[in-house]
Amino acid sequence: MVEGVIWFNHPKAFNQLMTEGEVYTLRKTIKNGIYVVLSKLVLNPPKTGRMAKVEYLGQVLNKEELENYVKKSGYKSVDDWVSEAKDAVHLHRVLLLTP
């Protein structure tokens, strides 16, 4: 059963998900389950509307906790990632289910 929609509007995270099929993302709210991937970045959306499994991994209390996840976040460094995420503190793993 689909829980809802997960939006990707930051190019680095969206590209990571679309090219690698997996991304670690910081969110303001907790999501867990199957979601439809949508993005405002795609004008002709062949890559949106795909299904993804979203796993909530926990709240991030300090940026050092993100070191193990930054390689699959789409960002080059934890500082870049945290700066873009602003006040989002909930770490999630998103795995595409449909090619």
SSE topology sketch:
Layout: E1 2-7, H1 11-20, E2 22-27, E3 33-38, E4 50-59, H2 78-85, E5 90-96
Number of domains: 1
Mean pLDDT across the residues is 92
Give Rg in angstroms.
13 Å
Strand order of the largest sheet: 1-3-4-5-2
- Strand content is 35-45%
* CATH T-level topology: Archaeosine Trna-guanine Transglycosylase, Chain: A, domain 4
The total of beta strands comes to 5
Shape from CA axes?
A: globular
Structural class: alpha+beta
Could you give the order of the helices and strands? Answer: EHEEEHE
Largest sheet: 5 strands, mixed
Helix content: 10-25%
Low-confidence stretches: none
Output the number of helix runs.
2
- CATH arch. level architecture: Roll
CATH class, named Mainly Beta
Care to describe what's here?
- With 99 residues, this protein is of the alpha+beta class.
- It has one domain (2-96): Roll (Archaeosine Trna-guanine Transglycosylase, Chain: A, domain 4), CATH 2.30.130.
- The protein is 18% helix and 35% strand.
- The chain is built from 2 helices and 5 strands; from the N terminus they run βαβββαβ.
- A 5-stranded mixed β-sheet has the order 1-3-4-5-2.
